Task: inverse folding
């Protein structure tokens, strides 16, 4: 009996010892886990300032727009627009008119100024006629006469782009056109937002152009303007400032459209736009 009691006491003592040992073990593990977590947290906190912002900068997609200016060159406003684009580290595209190139040495110089700044220059037409109101021969001659006028000023001049006056061009002319036909997807209507009689009226016109650009521009936009008006130059300067602060880059049409660009097709949003023929996207 004495032995049995002794063994019972020994068993109870061992059981207590085992329980104590187990609980001590698990208590030991907890701080270790917490330590290792806090170590890795403190390690990542230390890395954050050097690594994370750089990663975000690299992965953030660039937003790009192509500002385009028709009907020039103009001795004052073309240069002003080029300077503004350059101040933002960007470039723009001009669609020139043949008779404007021939108008004076100042006009020719403005064209050269745009080329020297690596801006892109495409053809608009020689006499600014509508291509849906002329025959095929006249259409092709409008383009070749504009090219000749440009080459007289800059003998090495080449281009892959044209823009039809008012965006109007018959489908059969697009197919035979030796250039990519470039339309737009943001219309600033600057051609009717100028000439206000008072300073206040002009300020309202300029504000309307800027608002249209800031409201409508998105990555891939081709923005239609005209380098014929002071309002346009001022509005471009203000809009460029705002878009640049939002992270936009200003690129040429060829930079924006890249390899998609080809002669005999209409472009607006980076891809050939067949629907624009029917006027659906205007
Ligand atoms: Zn025009």
Result:
């Amino acid at each position: 009996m004495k032995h049995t009691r002794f063994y019972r006491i020994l068993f109870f003592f061992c059981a207590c010892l085992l329980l104590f040992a187990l609980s001590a073990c698990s208590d030991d593990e907890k701080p270790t886990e917490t330590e290792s977590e806090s170590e890795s947290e403190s390690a990542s906190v230390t890395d954050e300032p050097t690594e994370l912002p750089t990663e975000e900068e690299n992965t953030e997609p660039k937003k790009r727009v192509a500002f385009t200016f028709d009907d020039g060159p103009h001795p004052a406003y073309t240069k002003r627009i080029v300077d503004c684009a350059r101040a933002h580290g960007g470039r723009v595209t001009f669609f020139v008119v043949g008779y404007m190139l021939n108008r004076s040495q100042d006009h020719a110089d403005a064209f050269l100024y745009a080329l020297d700044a690596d801006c892109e220059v495409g053809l608009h037409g020689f006499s600014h006629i509508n291509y849906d109101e002329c025959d095929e021969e006249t259409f092709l001659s409008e383009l070749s006469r504009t090219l000749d006028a440009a080459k007289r000023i800059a003998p090495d001049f080449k281009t892959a782009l044209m823009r039809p006056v008012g965006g109007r061009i018959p489908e059969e002319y697009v197919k035979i056109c030796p250039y990519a036909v470039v339309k737009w997807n943001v219309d600033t209507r600057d051609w009717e937002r100028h000439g206000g009689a008072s300073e206040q009226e002009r300020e309202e016109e300029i504000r309307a152009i800027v608002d249209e650009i800031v409201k409508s521009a998105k990555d891939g936009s081709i923005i239609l303007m005209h380098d014929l008006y002071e309002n346009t130059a001022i509005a471009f300067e203000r809009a460029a400032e705002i878009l640049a602060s939002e992270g936009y880059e200003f690129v040429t049409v060829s930079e924006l459209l890249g390899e998609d660009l080809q002669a005999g097709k209409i472009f607006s949003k980076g891809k050939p736009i067949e629907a624009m023929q029917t006027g659906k996207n205007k």
The beta strands are 63-70, 93-97, 120-125, 161-162, 180-182, 186-187, 222-226, 248-250, 266-267.
